[in-house]
Amino acid sequence: MKRLALCLAVVTTLSGLAAHAFATSTTSAQSATTDMGEMFPLVNLINQSGLSIPYTSGMTDFDAYLAGNPNHSSSLGNAWVSSFGTTTGQIDFDLGSVLVVDRIAVWNFSGGSTFSTKNITVFASQQSDFSGAVNLGTFKLNLPPPLVSQAQVISFSSTNARFIRFQILGNYGASTSTALGEVAFSTYSTAQSPTLIEIDIKPKSDLNSINCKNPKGVITVAILTTDDFDATTVAHTTVSFEGASETHVNKKSGNPKRHEEDVDGDGDTDLVLHFRLGDTDLTCESTQGALTGETFEGQAIEGADDISTVLPNAAPALNPRSKLATTWARMKTQR
Ligand SMILES: [Ca+2]
Ligand SMILES: [Ca+2]
Ligand SMILES: [Ca+2]
Q: Where in the chain is the domain with CATH 2.60.40?
């Protein structure tokens, strides 16, 4: 168990580095809705209207784009302005698919006006009804100078989200309307950063010994539920263990069977899978088995555990003069 923890720690560090090594994209929401009305249309927030430099949504590097210092014009025709008399409420952005979001660039309304948005609380969810939403924090948007607004970047812990909500708490004093210029998201694909999960090869055994010469042998591997991860969210049909998929299939449908059980007896349900050695890429030299897959939400998962391969029929280490050793030697010559 200690070695497993160490191994996971190393993987975590590498993946942590990777998270900063690859670029994030500048992404526009595909659509947006608001309960605050539209004196000037909401689409002006997500269509790059009024930006001094265009970007290609989902492609342009976020940091490189902002380094070019793109600003937003003060023209009302490039902004969203809420209905007369409504100054607080919410805007929901739909990114079109679940992505990892780590920052948001906001260009406030820059008319030198009390319309400009002041405080917002930002929520992220994978569901359009914002069930299970994560509160990313409350942020104060700066009051831009009269002519143009610069991007203000809101940062938070990376989160998997398709929907982002701005809960608008107030503006810079106008009692008539609230306004914003443009919003763009810093995103990357969830496929680039698998969630590290804990697996247990041969549950109830710490040795995890595998007869590496028996291709028909079935290896049981459990995906454990922990404080951070619910194994029952894993789509078992997507799971691959060293290149093999679940060997127990429904004879009628041919679909892999799903087996949930509390294998470690800690009171929560784990997911148990079975792989035929001959279907895997494991060899007698292997020292570790790795498992990959996806949750029902499409989040990639990854975990590994140590194994010790054993050769079948290896002569037991016996005193060569013992009766058992003699019998063993005779049996071997007879085969
Ligand atoms: Ca705009
Ligand atoms: Ca084990
Ligand atoms: Ca359990």
A: 194-310
Torsion of the alpha carbons at 164, 170, 176 and 181, rounded to the nearest 10: -50
Ligand number with the minimum distance to the CA of 44: 1
CA of 222 to the centre of ligand 3 (A): 9
pLDDT average, residue stretch 40-52: 98
Could you tell me the distance, in angstroms and rounded to a whole number, from the CA of residue 200 to the centre of ligand 3?
11
Q: 322 CA to middle of ligand 1, Å?
A: 88
CATH topology of domain 194-310: Immunoglobulin-like (2.60.40)
Helix (H) or strand (E) holding 20: helix 2-21
CATH ID of 22-189, from 1.10.10.10, 2.60.120.260, 1.10.760.10, 2.60.40.10: 2.60.120.260
Question: What's the gap in Å between 145 CA and the centre of ligand 1?
Answer: 16
Residue ranges, CATH 2.60.120.260, the chain: 22-189
> What separation in Å is there between the alpha carbon of 139 and the centre of ligand 1?
20
- Residue 176, both tokens: 């008539």
The answer to whether the CB of 139 falls within 8 A of the CB of 278 is no
Which tens digits make up the pLDDT trace of 279-333? 999 999 999 999 999 999 878 899 999 999 998 765 444 455 555 555 555 555 5
Give the tens place of pLDDT for each residue, 110-119: 877 899 999 9
Residue 86: DSSP 8-state: B
